[in-house]
Model the fold of this input.
Amino acid sequence: MTNTYTNRNTFAITTPLYYVNDLPHIGSAYTTIAADTIARFHRLQGRSVLMITGTDEHGQKIERTAQSKGRYPKEHCDLVFKGFESLWQKLNIQYDRFIRTTASNHQEIVKEFFQRVWEQDDIYLSQQQGWYCVSCEEFKEERELGEDKYCPIHTNQKVEWRDEENYFFRLSKYQEQLQAFYQEKPEFIQPQSRRNEVLSFVNKGLQDFSISRVNVNWGFQLPIDSNHTIYVWFDALLGYVTALLDPDSEPTLENALLKWWPINLHLIGKDILRFHAVYWPAMLMSANLPLPKRVFGHGFLTKDGKKMGKSLKNTLDPFKLIEKYGSDAVRYYFLKEIEFGVDGDFNETRFINVLNADLANDLGNLLNRTLKMAHKYFNGQIPNIDGEEVEVTHPLKTIGISLGEEVTQTYGSLVFSQVCEAVLILVRNCNKYIDETAPWS
Done:
């Protein structure tokens, strides 16, 4: 399949496709705010941008969650989907496509992709034995579990022993190809700490992974065996491809990949790094498709220094936070105060202090003073000043000249906190300049 858009001025970015076992939490909001910010920056630079978000709606966990609430799986998915849609609206997220993996056009893409991989002889039937975490929808290695067999991520949930026939994807076949790819494209996995994690995992040796489940009804049937359902991750990762389809186009791989593929940036939480940085590129290699440009795994959020969880009763409700402080304040704090890529903490006192210092005092004060002077001295019109006429030695011009380039570079590295700080330096210097020159006198 040829891609005619190699040198295009386009930029495609994805958030994860969020799992709909429950309403969106602050972690989902954090990733989506970051993705929206990057998308806005690329739009400002004149690129054609496609921002993709969505929901991952299949699998045993959804089936069980719906059952526990006395709902049909589809009814449960529809309710939670509305929660995501509502939160993105409140956060002023300007996404272009919202993909739901229960969509009929997605099933067609999954089928065609599966067929390609099947024809490569990369799928086979075998027996799967091991410890399975339903919440992760993933088999766990013995070394990851403690003596009492609790999941290392869902620490309050025991894993289940499984012994069943599954179809497998030949991941081990792509070990050397993946290692060569990581070597050739060191920027593919970021930040560096995540890249090191992936290299360490792959260098220990890759095992084939099962891509089907039995006794799970909620999912797409395997095209070659109706007793099996396609494993949720094999299905969900392809949601990024389905999202590229124009609404009225026929759901084929060729149509989906025509304009926006390969994706420029997959933005994810570090807990799903392995799926995006190992399984996904291997699946694409098998289907003979170009690989995404970059996968960035950011850190987790804590609250007051502690991991958030329902059992600890210290979750942070994004809806309530926005209602109390407004979406701009929420967006600003998470980008400015948390170094993107590492774990970060939310503390309400610090949150209020940062907003007051940066937005109310520094920026708010500058805006207020400038507008007042424009009204008082220039009849509410901004004076027509040519920047070229301002002396190069002017204290504000010296900061302003390099600011565009600095912001572009730091956005490219996804260092949002530095972007905010660079702009704040100009804001503070503007206030200082007004104080020192006292134009009203």
